[in-house]
Amino acid sequence: MKRILVFIALLSVLISCKKSSYVAKFDKLPQERAGEQIAMVLDVLTSNKNGWIASLPTGVGGGYGFYVNFDNDQNVVMYGDMTDQSAAEVKKSYFRVKQDMGTDLVFDTYTYISMLNDPDDSVLGGAGKVGFSSDVEFIYDRSTADSIIFIGKKYRQPFKLVKATAAQKAVYEAGGYKTAIDKFKSFFSVNQNPYIELGSGATAQKVSVTPNMTNNLDIGKRIDMTGASADGKITSNTEKFSFTLDGISILNNGLVFQGITFVKLRWKDATSLVAVDASGKEYAVKNSIAPLIPLNQLWGSKYIGMLSEFKTIYPGTSATGTDILNYFHNNLAPSPINPYNFNYGRINFVWSVVNKRLTINAHTSQSAGVNTWVTASTYNYTVDNQGVYKFTLLSAPSEGYAGKMIAKLHDFMLANRVTFDYYIDGAVVYGKMASVDDPSIVMTFVLQ
Fold it and tell me: What pLDDT does 6 receive?
């Protein structure tokens, strides 16, 4: 009985203990800490009156650059490197900093950064419904003395902002971003076979440097480096970039080529361009009279194939080549050979160098390319020392929706010996397929 009474006494002591005896692990409530971080992020963004130079890789496209300036009334002004207009004309909108999954920066009215998220593929050329898989809401990650970094809320791409100077602000506000971009594009329009040298003297390795300055979803706003090593093997690597006032910044921590990390291309003086690696070493960008490596040697290494995009005929395509390609593109609408209405279609050339095969995939879609039906035809090939290809049939166009629409291209592949070369239009490099047997037939494509 005595034991029971002792137990009851102990229990009543425990029950009577006050909650005030609990010591919190943190000295502030979660909502207080969240409020302080919101205030800190807002202060960092708005306190630099010269604004910020920003960069953003997209989820499925290339990289993009911005100038942004935030004020205390939640206004933001912006320039972006997507188009001539976005680079030269200021765009005003609103922003918020709020608490959600973390401390979020939100561009909640339409601005230039919203173009990368626009579901209308006619705005900038992104994919239907998802654009470039980019964000307008970003979660605060970290900051330093001169930068602040956010992460895209959905697509997890880094949105990096670095403090601008008063001089840089003045250049942006005077339309100088477009001028800088035009100068960079002009250099590569004049110097059509640019390269840098690794090493020196007779053993120096020439490495081609190719920035694609279009907004093409698959290859645009990316820079490529390609070269032949001592054993003759072709190596290549690609990374996204954004335009800056003095050249381009290579995103995602740089482009690694043969152990060297390249982080930017910039002007050394008014006319000389240099590539710069992570250690600060400079490599002069020179120009070759002819391409360093023939196109046919790059199948399977730098390029996996070619693309004829929806109802697009590229520069350099001849009249007879246009007829062959348009037999597919124009018949996507209802016609005597096609009873269906397709609102999207494309032709992809896909190389399998190991097997010496080329597959042509003809895509058709009634969902603006979100989902496609594929009609495939596959060819074996031989290639001689002069780079002349001869194709033989492995499998005819499958009986898909595009079986008849692709017929003219299919017949061309079997009836002609062909060569592949570059076609350069301004700063854009296309792949050119030309008939050896009938020189009037030339078709150009986007290189992939």
Answer: 46
Please give the CATH architecture assigned to the domain spanning 296-447.
Beta Barrel (2.40)
Say which DSSP state 398 is in. P
User: How far is the CA of 389 from the CAs of 296, 317, 397, 413, in angstroms?
Assistant: 10, 19, 20, 10
Q: What dihedral do alpha carbons 402, 404, 405, 408 form, nearest 10°?
A: 130
Name the strand (E) or helix (H) holding 88.
helix 84-88
- Please state, in angstroms and rounded to a whole number, the distance separating the CA atoms of residues 217 and 325: 21
User: What stretch(es) of the chain map to CATH 2.40.128?
Assistant: 31-174, 179-293, 296-447
As given in the structure block, the two tokens for residue 351 are 């190389």
pLDDT in tens, 436-445: 999 999 999 9
Three-state SS sequence of 145-157: CCEEEEEECCCCC
Which two structure tokens, joined as six digits, stand for 194? 């640019």
What is the DSSP secondary-structure string of 144-191? -SSEEEEEETTT--EEEEEEPPHHHHHHHHTTHHHHHHHHHHHHHHH-
What's the mean per-residue pLDDT of the chain?
90
Domain 179-293 has CATH 2.40.128: yes
Tell me the pTM.
0.73
Structure token digits, residue 331: 């018949």
Which of 229, 224, 222 lies closest to 198, judged by CA?
A: 229
Burial 212-224 (b: 16+ CB within 10 A, else e): bbebbbebbbbbb
Task: Give the chain's radius of gyration (CA, Å).
Answer: 28
Q: Which of 223, 210, 279 is nearest to 251 (CA)?
A: 223
Task: Tell me which residue has tokens 């020439």.
Answer: 206
DSSP character string of 115-147: GGG-S-TTTTS-BTTTBTS--SEEEEEEE-SSE
Q: Tokens at residue 312, please?
A: 């697009």
* Paired strand residues for 345: 364
- Collapsing DSSP to helix, strand or coil, 82 comes out as coil
- Whole-Å CA distances, 21 to 14, 16, 17, 18, 316: 12, 11, 8, 6, 82
248 in Cβ contact with 326 (< 8 Å): no
